[in-house]
Amino acid sequence: MSITTDRRTLVATKEREQQYIGDRWWRLLTIALLVIIAVIMLLPFTWLVSSSLKLQHQVFQYPPKWIPDPIRFENYVEALTYKPFHIYLKNTMVIIILNEIAVLWSASFCAYGFARMRFPGRDFWFAIVIGTMMMPYVVLVVPTFVIFSRLGWIDTFLPLTVPQFFGGGAFNIFLLRQFFRTIPEELSDAARIDGATEFGIYWRIMLPLAKPALITVAIFTFLNTWNDFFGPLIYLNSPENFTVAVGLASFRGVLNTRWELQMAASTATILPVVILFFVAQRYFIKGIVMTGLKG
Amino acid sequence: MTTSPDHMPAEDRAGVRAALTRGGPRLSLSQRRTILGYTFVSPFILGFLLWFIIPALTAVYLVFHRWNLIAEPRFVGFDNILRLFRDPLLGQSLKATLIFTFASVPLGLIVSFLLALLINTKIRGIAIFRTIYYLPSIVPAVANAVLWAWIFNTEFGLLNALLRGMGLSKVRWLQDPDWALPALIFMSLWNAGGAMIVFLAGLQGIPDILYEAAEIDGAGRWAKLRRVTIPMMSPIIFFNLVIGLIGTFQVFTIGFLITDGGPQNSTLFLVLYIYRNAFEYLDMGYAATVSWVLFFIVAGLTLVVFRYFGSQVYYENE
Q1: Which of B 32-91 lie inside 8 A of A, CB atoms?
Q2: Which of A268, A164, A177, A154 has its CA nearest to residue A225?
Q3: Residue B197 with chain A: CB contacts under 8 Å
Q4: For A77-293, CATH number?
Q5: Looking at CA atoms only, how far is residue A21 from chain B in angstroms?
């Protein structure tokens, strides 16, 4: 900063002064744009929440009222009890917890191998990890479904959880491997001198140190599972097994003119995600940046 | 990118020490290390075989069979493949998917890049704007679809209310075959926040000294953007392009929930068509065959992108 200021004073010619005036206009323009776009971005959210709090007939009024009168919080109760959302929530949480255990264990275990072990074929297998990240997963949906149906796994949580125990997703392996590589090798060496095994080093040294990365992985696992629609849609048939996402979608078919209830249910499924975002904002950003930048 | 010679010496030393402390191994050190290494990565390798290789082989098998999962599979030779060439719905779904991809990916890249430039400004309260711009991209897909179905509603939706407020006539967004696809493309821009954050991180990683040097050389805003920012960002632009292409080609939820493929199949995306064949018509063989079409198109596109854009990417280290 000081270098810039120094130089600026040195070359503070008339041209520079004009530049400053230009800078001020530029700044105002930027702020104006920031605000206008923010309003546009928030408009759908405002519309969502506003609609969710209206009386049934108010939804169809023109011009639309942004602040409903009366504010009907009862819509939320009605929407969430019209279909058994508490069961959907319980199912979703069971799947999420199983996936968290699976992904956190499995991805970190594999990542340790790729980050810290040297063995023939390691780079080959890591290239395959990268390759599967580029794979359009829907291509394998049909054969995978056929296999699971042969195994008798349809309408159970097994297809949505068991595969996660095998590697926990290429992105997660990749992210944790990148993180493990930043931990100084000397720490592991010291532990080895004290007689620790590789498993001990993984469990007692790497995992505790990798906590920030593990939290990032945990958050994205939560989001992916909470948001997943295609998987539960094809694998779960009976309503008592539905997840929140499928439940919300099924809601649409039955109550397609009750927009205020649809909006209330939608808001309710968005809320946990938004809360999670505000609680764990820095892990979010870290996760996106780590998977996004070092590819 | 995967080799790490820098780790070798330390690991070697440690390996020797470990061998010494544990005493008399029957296996040689390198053998033990190989077994241990494969133990660690075995979940992935097993998963790769179980959920990748076996499904891929099954997919090959399915191409040559007709199977509704109930009766026994019946061998049909090349019937499924030949059917591809005289299936107008496949043509329509390819068209819808390609238009959607080629419109929304470049538009999304441009919008997210511009947004990233905008939120890279150093002013007070910028974190609030970043949050607002990012939030739409974490909205769950189903809630997103339900919300936009309501926004696009012809009689009572937000968009037509705004148009009416400006004195324009309403558009039948989701009922008009000419408008449904553009509407979904427009909608996808609302979710540009994920790519925006990646771009923002990239922008913040560009060393100030490059801009200072450019300023000394008399570069203005445009020249700095053109000659410094864009070249420095090219690997990230490239990354977002590839990820965007692969992701967008698999678009399903919005077509399934908002438009149900209509009107007149104008939003019958490829994955929706696969879904219908597999889970509504129970034609696993043909569904798998169409999946292969999807695979080859995505693989082909990725290759083309790597060939033509990959060479234009500037890497600092080279």
Answers
A1: 33-34, 36-41, 43-48, 50-52, 54-56, 58-59, 62, 67, 69
A2: A164
A3: 285, 288-289, 292
A4: 1.10.3720.10
A5: 14
Backbone angles phi and psi of A185, in degrees to 5: -60, -25
For B148, name the nearest residue in chain A, comparing CA atoms only. Answer: A44
Residues A206-255: tens digit of each pLDDT: 999 999 899 999 998 999 999 999 999 999 999 999 999 999 998 877 77
CATH fold of B83-312 reads MetI-like fold (1.10.3720)
How far apart are the C-alpha atoms of B154 and B172, rounded to whole Å?
5
B147 with A281: Cβ contact below 8 A: no
Q: What are the DSSP E strand ranges found in B121-183?
A: none
Instruction: Report the C-alpha gap between B292 and B305 in whole angstroms.
Output: 20
Q: What is the pLDDT of residues B251-285, one digit of tens each?
A: 999 999 999 988 999 999 999 999 999 999 999 99
End-to-end CA distance of chain B: 13
Q: How far is B118 from chain A (nearest CA, A)?
A: 7
Task: Give the one of B4, B58, B165 whose C-beta lies nearest to A146's C-beta.
Answer: B58
Q: What CA–CA distance (Å, rounded) separates B262 from A294?
A: 40
Instruction: State the sign of the Cα–Cα–Cα–Cα dihedral A228, A230, A236, A237.
Output: positive
CB spacing of A269 vs B202 below 8 angstroms: no
A126: tokens are: 């890591």
Tell me if A212 sits within 8 A of A226, measured CB to CB.
no
Domain boundaries, chain B: 5-63, 83-312
